[in-house]
């Protein structure tokens, strides 16, 4: 069953709110990473710890940036009237999946295939595994 206009609007609001949160988090992380660069007066151990923290911040910013791109793509789909339809197979994405991952553009089966391909290619970002809802 296709999404109703009120359901689409519900997801649009969620996507816009998440986009704002991620934009703020990314800006804070990038600012903190720049602040980490000014460590000339610290000893070697402190600098090493700060370097690890900076790398963590940059990785998080990269993941946030990737999710921002997915959110933007989902918003484009809403504008085109194709939100909730799998980009690969054209089947409807279950509401349970959209509830868990509102920026999902693939059904679970096609997302798993995509993740497997990206893992083999070494382009799947690290971090916690994505929550899959069937």
What can you see in these coordinates?
By secondary structure, the chain is mainly alpha-helical. Helices cover 66% and strands 0% of the residues. The chain contains four helices and no strands. Helix 1 packs antiparallel against helix 2. It starts with a helix and ends in a 13-residue tail after the last helix. The C terminus is likely disordered.
Keywords:
single chain; 0% strand; disordered C terminus; 134 residues; 66% helix; mainly alpha
Question: Helices, strands, pairings?
Answer:
Elements: H1 5-36, H2 44-80, H3 95-100, H4 108-121
Helix pairs in contact: 1-2
Tell me the span between the first and last alpha carbons. Answer: 16 Å
Structural class: mainly alpha
Helix-strand sequence: HHHH
Calculate Rg over CA atoms.
18 Å
Binned, the helix content reads 55-70%
The largest β sheet comes out as:
none
Which segments are poorly predicted (pLDDT under 50) over 5 or more consecutive residues? 127-134
User: How large is the share of residues in beta strands?
Assistant: under 5%
Number of distinct beta strands: 0
Globally, the shape reads: elongated
Number of helices: 4
Give the overall average pLDDT. Answer: 82
Summarize this structure briefly:
The protein is an all-alpha fold and 134 residues long.
